[in-house]
Structure formats: structure tokens, C-alpha cells
Amino acid sequence: MPDNFTHCAGMVRSFDHDRFLSSLFVSEPVRSHLYALYAFNVEVARIAELVSDPMLGEIRLQWWREALDTAFAGDIPRAHPVAHALTEAIRARALPQHLFEALLDARAQDVSATPPATLTGLEQYAQGTSSGVMRLAAAMLSTDALDATALKAIDHAGVGMALVGLIRAIGFHAGRQRVFLPLDLLEQHGLTVQAVLSGRVTAPLRRVIHTVAECAAAHLQQARAVTLPREILPAVLPAALVKLYLPGILRNDFDPFQIAPTVPGYRRQLRLLRVMLRGRL
Fold it and tell me: Which of 32, 69, 192, 217 is deepest in the core (most CB within 10 A)?
């Protein structure tokens, strides 16, 4: 594996281990191309965590927009290991530019640090980010264009996965003065953004969390109702791990401000293997 792709694999293993494990079911060279995509996703997802000024975040997002324009124009890649590897993956797999643009547009919400106004808005954010990555991964894996039913299932899988991920990261985000819970749900339960940032678990907050978790479960149920082509199953495979995370979230003693309990690697690997053998989420 060339050095740029090795760098990407290391990033994904460190920062997005569920996708790293899912990639192991894909053979080379596509696996390396997936690492490039997932490393790009790590890069843009972490922008808001690494900057203190929204303007600096916008500058970093613009840098990636220009790097993508360079990749799709066929010019010399940016001197950055992830940008270089992603450029190679884009050209080798003929990936669609509009999905990258939609992903960066959604990530601009991270930089603004403004909570979503509604649960629907949160679902749209999850679709633009998580589902967008899954669609790009599926495009890498598929030799044929996917029909509308398959694309919709991918979207549901991505939203379900993202919503659970955001719940598990409530404490992490609160520590950085950020809240991803919908304002309409908070208001419905008599909560404010400051109440969430206080780091105190309350019954109303748990009800908000349960509502978002139930929404995630509904999306995953719709994704599972569709049998996707086996060749693209690794693209949505990380969503299969939500089944391992949801029970802990729905416990009455779940504390989102504590470090999210981890699921041992062997359990996640077994879950992924079962899904691959079964051939469906």
C-alpha cells in the first residue's frame, strides 16, 4: 500500500474504527480507496474540533473544496497525504463530485456550532454527512448504477448510524460547547441549550435522547427492509453495529456525559461477520 494510503488507513483505524473494521471485508485496491474516502471524512468531521474560530473552520472547508476541484479537474493533487490519496481514488473510481459537495455543505453546520432547529433538520444533516459517505463508498464498490430503492436504503442506514453516533458523542460535544440535539425537542421537554451544556442528566434530557434513538432505530429498520446488492454491503456495514450501541443508550441509567461505553472489538467483528454472511443488514 503506497505511503499516502497507509497514512489514510492509520487515520481511519484511529478515528473511525467501525468503518475501519468494515473495510476489512473489501479486497485491494478498493480497500485502499475506501481508506482515502474515510480519512477525508475524518479530516472534515474534525475541523470544528480543531478550530476555535468559525472563520478558520470555513477556511479549512474551502481548502477541501478547492482540493476536490483540483481532483475532478485532473490537475496535480494537493501536497497532502489524504488529498493525494483521495484524488487517486476519485479518478480510479469515477466518483460523483456532487456527493462530496453535499458532504462539505453539511459539515459547514459543524463550523457554525448552531444546533439543528428540528429533528427533521438533524436527519437532513445526518443524511448529508453519514449517508453521503455511504453513497460514495457504494459507488466505489458497485460496478452498476444503483436504483432508487437501494439509494434510499443507504440513506436510511447512514441517518440511523449518524443519529446514534451523535447521541454517544453528546458529552464530547458539550465539552466543546456544541449541541446537536434538535431545538424543537429540547423546547418540547422544557430544556435549553445551556441545560445540555451544563452536563447534568435529567429525565427530560433522557426523553429527548430516547426520541432521537427511536428515530435512528426506525431508519435502520427501513434500511434492513431492503436487500442490497452484496457487493455494496460493506459500504453500509458500519450501520449494523448500531444494534450493539442502542441497548446502552436506551437504559434508564444512560449518562451521555460520561465516556460512552465501548463495545469490545471482537463483538463488533462478530456482528459484522454475521451480517456479511447473511448478506443483509
Answer: 32
